[in-house]
Design a protein that fits this description.
Elements lengths: L1 H5 L5 H28 L6 H8 L4 H20 L3 H20 L12 H16 L12 H4 L2
Helix pairs in contact: 2-3, 2-4, 2-6, 3-4, 4-5, 5-6
């Protein structure tokens, strides 16, 4: 165990393990919220209720739910990883500017704290890729960059 913490530069396997942990943590939230919006799961609004809540057309409810669910699956699995990360970035920027900014930073007051954290994680994912502990390395080379 001490070997994990002695080196100043993490090994490749440590970086891949860290990316996996971050991917799981981020993806679980998007799978949860995407299912709540798209299917009304977990006591969620469903697409029409979500769209009404943010004062948008119902199509926006479907698109946001789909982007969250598909983005979460992509981030979790590593398949179409960067497409999923971009989907999450777009959704989180929408959440930040359309919902959370008026409430400040504090999540306890409805602020942007959590949405910003998820957005920044997705930006980091976009820069790094999913790592080796994903389905991405088993994909054809033309799909690995997506």
């Amino acid at each position: 165990m001490n070997a994990l913490f002695q080196s100043s530069a993490p090994s490749s396997s440590q970086l891949n393990a860290a990316l996996l942990i971050l991917r799981v943590a981020s993806a679980l939230a998007f799978l949860f919220h995407g299912s709540a919006i798209l299917f009304g799961a977990f006591g969620g609004f469903g697409p029409a209720g979500f769209a009404a809540y943010i004062h948008m057309p119902v199509a926006v409810g479907y698109l946001v739910g789909l982007a969250q669910l598909a983005g979460g699956l992509a981030i979790l699995s590593g398949v179409l990883f960067r497409v999923g990360a971009v989907s999450v970035i777009i959704v989180m920027l929408g959440a930040i500017f359309l919902v959370h900014v008026p409430h400040g930073f504090d999540i306890a007051k409805g602020g942007l704290e959590y949405a910003l954290t998820q957005c920044l994680l997705a930006v980091a994912f976009l820069l790094t890729g999913p790592g080796d502990y994903s389905l991405n390395p088993s994909l054809p080379a033309s799909f690995r960059k997506l």
